[in-house]
Amino acid sequence: MLRLLLFDRHPPATVAQEQMWPHPVDLSRMSELEEDQQYLAQPPVPVAANSDEEEDDEERGDELYEHHRITANRKQELLRLDKFLLNRLHSSSRTRIQNAIKAEAVQVNDRPVKSNYRVKPFDVITITLPEPPQEFKVMPEPMHLDIRYEDAELLLVNKPAGMVVHPAFGHWSGTLVNGLAHHLQGLPTGRNGEVRPGLVHRIDKDTSGLLVIGKSEYAMTHLSNQFFHHTIERTYLALVWGVPKETEGTICTHIGRSLKDRKVQTVFPEGDQGRHAVTHYKVLKTFGKVALVQCNLETGRTHQIRVHMKHIGHPLFGDATYGGDRIVYGQRTGAYKVFAEKTLELMPRQALHAKSLGFEHPVSREHLQFEVELPADFMELLARWEQYTAEN
Question: 0.90 cut: is pTM over it?
Answer without folding.
Answer: no
